[in-house]
Every structure is written in structure tokens, then in C-alpha cells.
Amino acid sequence: MSLTSTRVGDAADPASRARRPDRSGVTSRDGVDLAWESFGTASPTLLLMPTWSIVPSRIWKAQVGYLARHFRVVTFDGRGSGASGHPTGAAAYTNEEYAADAVAVMDAADVDRAVLVALSCGASWSVHVATSWPERVLGIFAIAPSCGFSIDDPNRDHVPWDQPLPNANGWNKYNKHYWLDGDYGDFVRFFFSQMFSEPHSTKQIEDAVAWGHQISPQTLADTTAGRIGCDGAVCSDIEALCARVTQPVTVLHGSDDHVRGLQYGERLAELTGGNLIVVEGAGHGPLARDPVFVNHEIRRFAERFTSRPEDESEGGTRHTHVRATSRRKRALYISSPIGLGHARRDVAIADELRLLHPDLEIEWLAQDPVTRVLAARGETIHPASAHLANESGHIESECGEHDLHAFRAVRRMDEILINNFMVFDELMEREPFDLVIGDEAWDVDYFLHENPELKRARYAWFTDFVGWLPMPDGGEEEAALTADLNAEMIEHRARFRGLRDRSIFVGNPADVVADAFGPGLPAIREWTEGEFDFAGYVTGFDASVKDVEGLRPRLGHHLDEKICVVSVGGSGVGLPLLRRVLDAVPLARQSVPELRFVIVTGPRIDPASLPAVAGAEVHGFLPDLTDHLAACDVALTQGGLTTCMELTALRKPFLYVPLRHHFEQNFHVRHRLEQYRAGTCVDYGLATDPNALAAMLVKELGRDVDYRAVETDGAARAAALLADLL
């Protein structure tokens, strides 16, 4: 049985990318391969320049999806990094070589002119391109430039790069001999802790450290020697070149840059006559640590090179503005796409909210598989939803056999989350809404707290769990990471109390775990009681009015049959469990011949991928799954909250098999089900034994349930809390 390994760093799998390239290729210059990708088609083209070879072009992952909706974006791995060639010797890595590479990539990608967007030492290469090929460059946007200026840097000037040093304290680690003969890994960790000096930068550091180990210490030494003029390489006078730049330049630099201080950005702006944007409190990597702000500034700079559409410049257009008091009230509902449970409860809440505000228009910013539920209910899906990157595909790419490290998977979904927040942000900028409702819309909640000035409407947040918890086998590292994320959330809420107009917990105080957020942090339940309103659980139906006797014949069940429904949610993670259940079907039917299985694969598993087994019928997505659950005699499900709570409300005996390493299913959901005395938890290791699984199903079939009653008014209570905001 295969389990997932602990996955850290950048998730570069195609399913984890916010946008896949429209074109890609490899061009060769002087025997060095240069791997490039192109996204989007709009003018002008933005060439996102490579930076120091310690990171590849994936450093731009938070920018590509957003910018490619407005411009054409081209990226390439610089020589010595990523998928490009790694030549040997310092002479192969001079500033002139990198500049010529940029032009070669432009030629290969059919780019005549481009806006150059650069990070750190990429600013020097951009200056070289702008002065040697001025007709190819529209402008330069330089982030945290690290150029060879004659500037005093007391933190680093005393450290020789190419001489052995007596110790490796602090910036003494930035030393060729320490990289080659000492502890390269120690240097990489130190450097990126300096690059990302902001608190709670663990993910950015983790990504960068992983990238830093993709190249050899010798290659890094060669690229550095070429850039600073050692080991036979020759450096040209960058200050003289800057004075020759005629194109528009904007420099963005953090005030807390520990790698190259603000004076470097000030100097580049001074020499080129450019504008300077100072980001107070930011370090050397604001493109990763403050991506929303950086994305906006890059777009603002690039738009100066965009020609106005012909129809606007020549007149003849018509625009309509509706006065605020003449508009119907509008709400934007964002429903988490991980599974289908959120969609079902959100539709129930929306129905109740419309009863309280009949004039309210609700539009949904949603993605598959949520859109299937919404479409079946006739809900309005906003066209901007087409720009959302799919979260379910990423989650599926992160899983093993019934094994999903949920914390790591969400943590590694950063590229998708920033893309989707930018979609939301643009929508809110273009269209007026009176209320935004986010049901575990992690992207919106996080980046609004990071950028509170972007809040443009009243905002309500829903969740059914609070607190990221480490798995026991994650050790001290995972415990520290979950605690850090929890601490950041607590700080966000304390600093920006008014950002959420409502925080609503789908459940009751006792449903919240009593664990602490981490060492020195408050208890989760106590903190949640002070932060949230409690709506009770939301099923979206009243189990007492379900006509089970009428449902069974409508669903094709005979009165003398026993029905077992098997459901694994809305993602593709549950395929291994379905296969295990089908292995157990013949054995269970030997004990109970009248037992028939209804296997529900959901929207993202092809029913044809499962074998045909006598006594089992396989269905894909069932919009009326709740009716099937109501008509069954026993059920087996993954450990997701929604199906488990629906079965609890319907008072059905059921087995649930939490995904391994899924902290929410193993801790939060299990705790809640224990409050209701509901279900029987089964470890997946036991479920892999067909005989054991069949025996447990048969035993569960005969079990009398004594569940605590589930609320039937949760949707109405939640809607009432929202109605006050309109």
C-alpha cells in the first residue's frame, strides 16, 4: 500500500499551476539551452527576467496567472538554473551573457519589444538589454535591484567572497569556499531567511530552499563569479550603463531588505531617472511575500505601454452607470471547491437569505465541482469564475493511496490561491456588490487581511473548523509550521478587527476542538467562542420529512433489499477506497445476500474506471445524493464532514474512513462526530482487508443508532446573521 511522502517546497506539477503555458520551447545560444514559456496574448509583452541562479523562473509563480490575463508574459530559466543549461566556468555567467540570453529568448518566442520585469541581479541584466538593444525594450520594472553599485554596505562589505574565512557566522556564509567545502545547505537556509525577513515567511523560505538545492554549489559559485568579476570574468561599469537608459524605469524596493538595502533601489532610480516605490517593512522578495501589491504595481507600470482600444479613442462607445440607490442589492457568494458539502449547505443558506431579502441578487464565484451543484439548482455563476484555477486538481495531485496531507496540500496550493484572489479582487474592482460571503474561501480571507485596503464590500466568513493541527508523524517541524500559520491568523484578526463583518462557525461551541493553536497560543475553542457567531450545523434539509418508503421505489430499490451507499465526496482522492469496498462486496453479500451496494464516485472519478462487481451499481455525480443516503440501510464514506453529518441527521449507521494525514478529518471531524455519538471510525489499514471490511459493514448494518439530534434550522440561523449586513 503506497502512502504519500511528505511533500515540501514548490508544487510545480501541472495540476498545481494557476495557468499552463500557451507556448513553450528551448532555444540554444552559444551551446547553452534556454527553456522558456509564454502565457497569454495581449499587448504589451512582459519578459519576466531570470535572477540569481539559486532560484528558477518559478520564482514568478505568483505573478504569471494574473499578469497573463492582461498581457503576454514570457518567462525563462536563466543559464545555470532550472531546465536551462548549466555551463561551467565564470566566463559563461557574465552580465553580458544573461542579457544576450534574454534577447535570444525574445527572438525564439517572437517578441519584438517587451517590458522587462526584473528581480535582484536581473535588474543589471535588464539594464544591459535596454542599452545594448534599446529598440527591444519598452521599459524596466526592477524589484529589489542588486546591482554592482559603488555603495557602502556595512553588513556585507567586510566579507570577501573568494577567500577562505575563519568562521561561517552571518554573511560569512556568503563565501565560495563555504559553499564548495563547507555546508552549502546551511548557506541556502541562511540566505533565504535574509531574503524573506518578514514574519511568517516559512512557505516562501521553504520554496526557495528547495530551489536552492536544485543546482550544485559549483554552478552557484560560477554564476556568482561571473556576476561580480572573479575567476577570470570581467564586469562592465553598471553605473555608466544606467545613465544611458532612456526607457521608463520604476524601481520597487523594501525598506527592510537584508540582502541589498534600500540604497541600491534609490541609486538605480537616481541613475536612470526612474520612479521609486518603497515598500515599508518588506524584504528582498516582495514578489512572493507581497504578491498582491507587486502584481498591481507591475500592471500599472505595463499599462502605460498599452494603446487605447480604437473604438474608445475615436468615440462612439456607450457606457451605463447605475446609481447606487437604483441598484438591486447584490451578494457575491464564494463556496469552497474542495468537495461538494460546502456547495449544498451554501445553497441552503442562500435560499434562506432570499426569503429575508427577496430583492437580493446572488452570484457565485465558483469552480468545478461546485458549479455542478449550482447549475443543477439554477444558480447564477459569475463569468469571472472561468478565470479561477482549479483547486481540486491540485488536491488530487497531492494524494497517495487514501492519503492526503491536507495541511501540506493547502500550503503548497499558494500559486492557485493568489491567482484566485486576484480574480476576486479584479471582479470587486469592476462591479459593485453589497456583501461578499466566503465559505472557507481561504484565498480571499488571507489576502484581504494582508491587504485590508482592498475590502470593497461587507464581508462574512464561514468555516466548520478552526485551527491547523499537525499530524503526529510530522514531528517538531510540522508542529512549528502549523503553529506559525495559526499565529499569523490570530494576529490578522487582532490587527484588523473590522475586516470581517461576520465570522460564522457552522456548528456549536462543543464542536470545536479544545487543543491549543500551538505553544504559547490560546486554546482553539476558547478563542473561537470569542471570535465567531455559531449557526449550528447546516444540512440544508429536514430529515424528519424525508419519505424513506417513498424514496426507495423511486430510486429503484426493492422493499426486501438492504442498501449500502458508498460515497467519497467531490474530489478524485477517494478512488482507492472505492476499489477496496468493491473487493469486499462479494464477502459482505455472502453474509447478507439481500445487501446491494450503490457506489457513488462523484464528479471527478470516472465510473468506468471501476470494475463491474455483482451486487454493486456504480454512479457518477448524483445531485440527489441526500435522497440516496436517506433511503439506505447502511453507508460507508470518507471522513468528510458533510456526508457524515447528513448520515447523522438521517440517523443511519455508517462507517467512515478518514484520509491518512488529513488533519481535519482525523481531528476536527472525528471530534464533532463523537459529540453526536455518530458513525464508526475505521482506519484505512483495516479497510484494505476485504474480510475485515465486509465484517465491519455487516456489523454496522445491524447497529441501533443513538445519535444526538442535528439542528434543522442552521441555514435559517446563518442567513439571519447575513441578513443584518444588507
Describe it:
It is a single chain. The protein is an alpha/beta fold and 726 residues long. The protein has three domains: 14-151 and 232-305, Rossmann fold (3-Layer(aba) Sandwich), CATH 3.40.50; 324-539 and 717-723, Rossmann fold (3-Layer(aba) Sandwich); 546-701, 3-Layer(aba) Sandwich (Rossmann fold). It is 38% helix and 14% strand. It contains 28 helices and 21 strands. It has an eight-stranded mixed sheet, with helices on both faces. The chain has a seven-stranded parallel sheet with strand order 11-10-9-12-13-14-15, with helices on both faces. β3 (45-48), α1 and β4 (72-76) form a beta-alpha-beta unit. The longest helix is centred in the last third of the chain and has 21 residues, at 475-495. 51% of the residues are buried.
Provide mean pLDDT, rounded.
Answer: 94
Shape label: globular
CATH architecture of the largest domain: 3-Layer(aba) Sandwich
Radius of gyration: 28 Å
Helix and strand content put the structural class at alpha/beta
Distance between the termini: 52 Å
CATH topology tier name of the largest domain: Rossmann fold
Count, helices = 28
Which range does the strand content fall in?
Answer: 5-15%
Major β-sheet profile:
8 strands, mixed
Poorly predicted runs: none
Question: What order do the helices and strands come in, and which of them pair?
Answer:
Layout: E1 23-29, E2 32-39, E3 45-48, H1 61-67, E4 72-76, H2 95-108, E5 114-119, H3 122-132, E6 137-143, H4 176-181, H5 184-195, H6 202-212, H7 217-228, H8 238-242, E7 249-254, H9 262-272, E8 275-279, H10 286-289, H11 291-302, H12 310-313, E9 330-335, H13 341-356, E10 361-365, H14 370-376, E11 380-381, H15 391-397, H16 406-411, H17 414-430, E12 435-439, H18 442-450, E13 458-463, H19 475-495, E14 502-505, H20 524-531, E15 533-534, H21 548-554, E16 562-567, H22 575-591, E17 595-600, E18 616-619, H23 625-631, E19 634-638, H24 641-649, E20 654-657, H25 663-675, E21 680-681, H26 684-687, H27 690-701, H28 714-723
Parallel strand pairs: 3-4, 3-5, 5-6, 6-7, 7-8, 9-10, 9-12, 10-11, 12-13, 13-14, 14-15, 16-17, 16-19, 17-18, 19-20, 20-21
Antiparallel strand pairs: 1-2, 2-4
Helix pairs in contact: 1-11, 1-17, 2-3, 5-6, 13-14, 13-28, 17-18, 21-23, 22-27
